[in-house]
Structure formats: C-alpha cells, structure tokens
C-alpha cells in the first residue's frame, strides 16, 4: 500500500479531512499540521461530489445551516435590542444602522471611524 506522506516509512492509516494528506500516526499528523498550517478540518463550503456524499457530509451540511441560522437570529436580536432592525430585501439599511452604531459608540466614549 501507499506510504505515509509525512515520514515515508510506514503505511498510511489516516487521511487528513482538510487536505487529504496520508499519514501513519499522531506524530505525523501533528508534524503535517505544524509544517503546513493545515487545520485538519474539511472546508465546510467546498462542493462534494455526489459519489462521495454520505451521511457524515449530510450531517456536516445540516450543522452548517443550523449554525448559520443561529448567527442570523442572534444578529436580529442584537439589532432589535439597539432599536433598529433589518429592513428591505437586501439586509440591513447600511447608513441608518451605521449612524445608530456611531451614536451608541459616542455615548460610550468610543470614537468609531467608519469607511463606506
């Protein structure tokens, strides 16, 4: 079989979900991550071929959608708490929202510089 792509001495046992590099052991996995700065995690937004789509991929996609929904709901609650909400079809009205944010920062003694 194929050898570890890190040490080249042992048969591979692990495939990195982030970059598909083949490694034989935890020390080789750790060396690979240090050397390449690989996170070891599959990029969640990269398309997956239908032939490779399995229950784990489905669960990962579902979790991504759930997390996205939670962040969206949290943003709505935060903006509602500031007294402004999302308006229009394309998200928040940028300039009124920035004006509100700038005034809130000023009340707290924070100088906010915004580039539009």
TrEMBL record:
CDD domains: zf-HIT_BCD1. Keywords: Isopeptide bond, Metal-binding, Phosphoprotein, Ribosome biogenesis, Ubl conjugation, Zinc, Zinc-finger. One of its GO terms (biological process) is snoRNA localization. Pfam families: zf-HIT (PF04438). One of its GO terms (molecular function) is zinc ion binding. Residues 4-38 form the HIT-type domain. GO terms for cellular component: nucleus; pre-snoRNP complex. SUPFAM superfamilies: HIT/MYND zinc finger-like. Transmembrane segments: none annotated. InterPro entries: BCD1, Znf_HIT. Required for box C/D snoRNAs accumulation involved in snoRNA processing, snoRNA transport to the nucleolus and ribosome biogenesis. Interacts with FBL, SNU13, NOP58, NUFIP1, RUVBL1, RUVBL2 and TAF9. Interacts (via HIT-type zinc finger) with the RUVBL1/RUVBL2 complex in the presence of ADP. Belongs to the BCD1 family. This is Box C/D snoRNA protein 1. It comes from Aegilops tauschii subsp. strangulata (Goatgrass).
């Amino acid at each position: 079989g194929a050898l570890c792509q890190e040490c080249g001495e042992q048969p591979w046992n692990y495939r990195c979900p982030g970059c598909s590099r083949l490694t034989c052991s935890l020390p080789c996995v750790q060396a690979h991550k240090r050397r390449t700065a690989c996170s070891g995690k599959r990029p969640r937004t990269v398309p997956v071929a239908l032939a490779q789509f399995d229950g784990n991929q489905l669960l990962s996609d579902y979790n991504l959608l759930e997390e996205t929904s939670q962040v969206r709901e949290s943003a709505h609650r935060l903006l509602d708490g500031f007294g402004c909400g999302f308006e229009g079809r394309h998200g928040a009205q940028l300039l009124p929202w920035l004006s509100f944010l700038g005034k809130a920062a000023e009340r707290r003694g924070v100088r906010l510089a915004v580039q539009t």
